[in-house]
Amino acid sequence: MKTRAKILTIIIVLGIFGIVVSFSLDLLYVPLPLPENLTDVEISLERTGCFGTCPIYTVSISGNGTVTYQGERFVKTLGVQTYEIPTSDIEQLVGMIYQKNYFSLKERYEVGATDLPTVITSVRVGDEIKSIENYGGAGPSQLHEIEQKIDEVSDSESFWIE
Predict the structure, then answer these.
(1) DSSP annotation string for 37-84
(2) Distance, CA of 1 to CA of 4 (rounded, Å)
């Protein structure tokens, strides 16, 4: 009977420890400092085709505020568009990329289906470089949030949504 009580106590203690650790992971996040020079920042997002009419375009954001959009198919605006956005938007985007731990995510996420679009994001901040392929939207929620933020900051939706 005493052995059973010890085992039960150990299980309870380990369970509580596991719960505490899982809730504490967000508290352990230490934000990396933003780069001193935003010219060391390049962020891009590419949306590929699917069997249907998925918008196909690429948007690239430079740290100096230059955005280049290239619409290919199933978008309102075809061709290349270049424009400027505030560097404060880029700082906010880079902060989110660090906060969502983009550089620790896997390089590819995929669903077991065919003919779905892929979203390819690439981020370079100084010497840190990472690209992620997200086929069929299989990536984690923080990746989706980053993808949406890139579209939002670059205002790319104004070129492809009719």
Answers:
(1) -GGGEEEEEEE---SS---EEEEEEETTSEEEEEEEESSSS-EEEEEE
(2) 5
Joined together, the tokens standing for residue 15 give 């369970």
Structure confidence by residue, pLDDT tens digits, 107-161: 999 999 999 999 999 999 999 999 999 999 999 999 999 999 999 999 998 887 6
Q: Which of 117, 87, 119, 122 is closest to 102 using CA atoms?
A: 122
- d(Cα 21, Cα 44) in Å, to the nearest integer? 34
Distance CA 63, CA 43 (A): 8
Which tokens sit at 112? 């077991």
**Residue in this structure with the two tokens 């896997």, named with its chain if needed:** 106
Rounded to whole angstroms, the Cα distance separating 27 from 23 reads 8
Q: Which CATH superfamily is domain 38-160 in?
A: Mago nashi (3.30.1560.10)
Domain segments of the chain as ranges: 1-30, 38-160
